[in-house]
Amino acid sequence: MDDIRDVLFEQDSGSRVTACIFSDGDGVLSGVERAAAKAAELGLAVNFAASEGAALMVGDLVMELCGSPKAIAQAEDRLMGLMLKPSGIATAASRFVHAAGNMRIVCGSWKKLPYEMKPLISEAVTAGGAGARICEEPMVYLDKNYVEMLGGIQASLRAADKLEARKKVVQIRGRYENGDIVREAFSAISAGADIVFVDTGRLSDIRKVCEALGLDRNKLEQYRRKRIIKARAVNGQMMYSAYDLIALTEHLQRRKIQRILSATARFVIR
Predict the structure, then answer these.
(1) What stretch of H or E contains 71?
(2) Helices marked H in 29-68 — which ranges?
(3) Nearest residue to 242 (alpha-carbon basis) of 203, 186, 162
(4) What Å distances lie between residue 131 and 21, 94, 135, CA to CA?
């Protein structure tokens, strides 16, 4: 016996029933396409009342299914999970996005997930409004292991130069430059990194790097309007040239030193 439902619903094999699925909580819907494909596979007619990424409230109708009693019973077993888990992930992603305000939220740690699950989770994260990649453009990501095997930050970025038309993203963790995370960031940028991923797990390190590079959103926007630095919009965010940021940082440091010196008392030896 392949399926006990063949016996349980044997007398009802010719009948048709309709099942309605409602949301039992507030959240974001995901998994629609996969659920629709599974419904078709089971021979069910399906009508979705909400689309991928839709905001749901308690009691909202999500979908209607129509088919044989056996197929409806199979759908409960095989179809629900294709929406329940992804919708939970999409809801969590959406909450992070709203809490972050203007900051872009990206879901990482993909290599820690089973390969087969990645597409489903990626779709759910996207449905919740978060990013599934550090950079949406074609890129090469140099994590700590690549950096180590390729001989360091700058050596790994030189190796990545062979991959043309790709953004270069490098992970820094304070393993080089005598453990100085700021010097690592400058080393990466000077070697052509487009994005520096500070991954020490310490917010203080991110602040240090941002302060050293002058990455204050308001100030950067002011300098862009003055045409001191250039930027381009990518997915609603301003992307700045790494070399422009280095030059700007050096300029700001020189001005800071000049202010300190101008305020220092001068002594004249007669």
Answers:
(1) helix 69-78
(2) 32-41
(3) 186
(4) 28, 11, 8
Banded model confidence at residue 270, pLDDT cuts 50, 70, 90: very low
* Arch. (CATH architecture) of 139-261: Alpha-Beta Barrel (3.20)
According to DSSP, the residues that pair with 160 across neighbouring strands are: none
Q: How far apart are CA 38 and CA 120, in angstroms?
A: 14
Q: Which residue has the tokens 């941002």?
A: 210
Q: What is the pLDDT of residues 216-244, one digit of tens each?
A: 566 667 777 777 666 666 555 555 555 56
**What residues have CB less than 8 Å from 143, skipping those under 6 apart?**
171
Q: At what angle do helices 81-100 and 118-127 cross, to 10 degrees?
A: 50
Average of per-residue pLDDT across 72-80: 88
Domain boundaries, the chain: 16-85, 139-261
Supply the pLDDT for residue 245: 61
SS3 233: strand
What letter represents residue 245's amino acid?
L
Would 16-85 and 139-261 be classified into the same CATH topology?
no
Q: What pLDDT is stored for residue 52 in this prediction?
A: 95
| DSSP code, position 107 | -
Q: Rounded to two decimals, what is the model's pTM? A: 0.67
Helix (H), strand (E) at residue 240: strand 237-240
Percentage of the chain modeled with pLDDT above 70: 79
CATH top class, domain 16-85 = alpha beta
CB 105 within 8 A of CB 203: no
CB-count burial class (<10 Å; 0-12, 13-18, 19+) for 267: exposed
